[in-house]
Amino acid sequence: MAELVGLVQRLEVAVGRLEDMSSSGGHGVILLLFLFSSAVSVYVVAYDNLISGPVAQYTALSQKIGGDVQKHAELMKQAFSCQRQLLVTASSSQKPSDSVLTSLLAPMSKVIQEVQSFREKNRSSPLFNHLSAVSESVPALGWVAMAPKPGPYVKEMQDAAMFYTNRVLKDYKEKYVSVCDVKQLVLTFSCAQFVPHASENKFPKYFNILVSQGPVASGGAPSGGAPAPPPPGPPPPPMNLDKSSSGDSGATSHNALFASINKGADITKGLKHVSDDQKTHKNPTLKVQGGPLPSGPKPFAARPTAAASPARTLPPVLELDGKKWKVENQEGAHGLVISDTELKQVVYAFKCNNSTLQVKGKINSIILDNCKKLGLVFDDVVGIVEVINCKDVKVQVMGKVPTISINKTDGCHVYLNKDSLSCEIISAKSSEMNVLVPNKDGEYTEIPVPEQFKTVWDGSKLVTTATEIAG
């Protein structure tokens, strides 16, 4: 905000100088008109400050780290550039049709997908947490499609990345560059919240504030294409319930109805008498013979619905791809075993249901993603075991593991042994988590992981503790 104030002050000074120049000739007036004709909207200026400030610092720090982080940052730079072009287009055009707006958003959406795909393709990277922090927060650039207030959406995406940013801050606390990189990333998307709120009365309405007067934005279609169809006409007037298509017949029928009701008990005098031999409950044979039953309209017969197409199932996978053991789409497989392992390898289990997986030997890391009712048993992991987007899974440690991460998971039981009691368990957005620790007699004691917390201000900082009823 201070930079915007400074920019306005500099513009005021420039205008004052041009006014002085205009008193001695017409060149100053011409230059003044040029200045305002070429000026960009105030929110584009605010966005430029974001790119030249936090985004540029984030890119520079990522270059110092190098490797996958640097490549990831280059993709992020493209994403911010695409969004700036979108804002420039919006600043000088009216709201386009939905199809054209989708085509305008397409370049930015494509880069966002590339940012997320880069993280998925590099799960074995030693900088995986860096990549995850960026991948989880990059959807914040979709604030332009959020209505009516995009700011909370950006904040939600920032919170989604906080799990991984905290991991990096913890794991790289001795490496100043990495710490700065993460803090700068959080700062970048904190500043990005400012963009939707900067000069709100200057924003285009289809970015939730105000339509600018200009030509309709084009999504890059050929110039010879057919013009957009005209907007639909006004809705039809509300139906007048007092009138019908037959003139006064509606009012007449209403009067007849009320007259019948006013008859009271006499209203039944016009009903036809039904003798006992015509009553089906006293003459069951009428139901079979089809006797003098009143022939009313046939009941409505629902149209036969087409059989639902079976869900497409992907073939199960259990293979070593480079350094990654891929275990995918396993259904009811209770004898999955990975035995020929090496320290540099990782295991990635995806969409495995009602199955059991045993990993023998010492391995780098294990990831369970989108699995249901999966049982995992492993010997030793030198890195981390991650449980993401799973439901009702069980994890048993036979040897040692330094960290187990549980994220966006409902139902997770972790069985530790005496050698893994020092394991750190990190959880976020999860429920029904239990850790089972062995007793001296070989039995297990089940301890719930807290899900509810209490936060208080102690005068200098926030202090968060698990509540007594948690778990």
Write a structural description.
The protein has 471 residues and is of the alpha/beta class. Among the domains are: 167 residues, Adenylate cyclase-associated CAP, N-terminal domain (Serine Threonine Protein Phosphatase 5, Tetratricopeptide repeat, Alpha Horseshoe); 150 residues, 3 Solenoid (Pectate Lyase C-like), CATH 2.160.20. 38% of the residues lie in helices and 20% in strands. The chain is built from 10 helices and 16 strands. The protein has a 7-stranded mixed β-sheet, with no helix packed on it. It has a 7-stranded mixed β-sheet with strand order 3-5-7-9-11-13-14, with no helix packed on it. The two termini are 44 Å apart. 23% of the residues are buried.
Describe the SSE topology.
Layout: H1 2-22, H2 27-38, H3 42-65, H4 67-91, H5 98-121, H6 128-137, H7 151-171, H8 176-197, H9 249-261, H10 285-289, E1 317-321, E2 324-328, E3 336-338, E4 346-350, E5 353-363, E6 365-369, E7 372-381, E8 384-388, E9 391-397, E10 403-407, E11 410-415, E12 424-428, E13 431-438, E14 444-448, E15 453-457, E16 462-466
Parallel strand pairs: 2-4, 3-5, 4-6, 5-7, 6-8, 7-9, 8-10, 9-11, 10-12, 11-13
Antiparallel strand pairs: 1-2, 13-14, 15-16
Helix pairs in contact: 1-2, 3-4, 3-8, 4-5, 5-6, 6-7, 7-8
